[in-house]
Amino acid sequence: MFSLCLLALGCGPDKSSFPRPASPLTRPNVGQKMPPFAARDQFNKDVSSDTLKGANGTVLLFFRSADW
Amino acid sequence: MTAVSYDSPEILKDFADRHKIEFPLLSDPQSKIIGSYGVLNQEATGMTKGMALPGYFYIDASGIIREKYFEANYTDRFTANNLMAKLFPELAEGISQKLGAPHLNLELNQSDRAVVPGSRFSLVAQIELPQDVHVYAPSVRGYKPIHLEIAPSPGRELVPPVYPPSKVLYLDAIREQVPVFEGRFRITSEVKMSATPDFMKSLGANGKTITIAGQLHYQACDKTTCYLPTSIPMTWQVQILPLDRQRSPDAIQHK
Known about the structure:
heterodimer, A: alpha+beta, two-stranded antiparallel sheet, 2 helices, B: mainly beta, Glutaredoxin, Immunoglobulin-like, 6-stranded mixed sheet
């Protein structure tokens, strides 16, 4: 099963006092192609949007920080 | 699932080791990915500069964005399990228990065994009716509809249950069309745990386990008979863990 908590959506301290967005979210929107990306993960492995695609698609989760 | 933040790979490794996270946590220290998805928090300054707004995209196998969710309330956080159960109900393993109920098979699921304050998780009643048996949908008039009732309690907020689309059934005996559920379907009710300072203090150092009570009310009917209305009591147990306030080691943390 998946990890029991959802990072920015769960594990960190209460960040309600941290900066909030000044403006509504912009692109990309539903129906648009995902912007490609490449990055290094916690295992020091280089991954990309291509390597992360699965048969069921993928969930790309953005979270604030794993530090504070 | 893949998660992205502006943290370094070292911070992500430290966090993943502590929480036994195996799915990829991507390091985006220059906020390039965060920027390209339009989710950079423009107001962040100091050590928070570069961080993302929290939320998710669901991208299908052909690379098209099918869902986009970013929170209006920063303390209202979907758990990973709840998110996956919503997007891929057929893949969600969950935790289940079977209950005895007249005229139907009833199985209770929950997206999470353990959550933290502010988490939004789901409780599910999975129902299977025998062939030719139906229950009435909530939109019915003049009959007793199926209803999942979760008991309110301080420390949590209930989201109204979500029912599947109903079917319209023509009943010869009464010459009426009625909205019903047949076969196998699920009713999902989400719960948002409090994130107030008082609630978090009440958890102590080790958290606590809560029991959430509910009832499933329904009246099952077949082609010739409507049986007596029934209410099935049910409970779910969830462990509420304190928030993780531990930072990364000094040498690698954001300054």
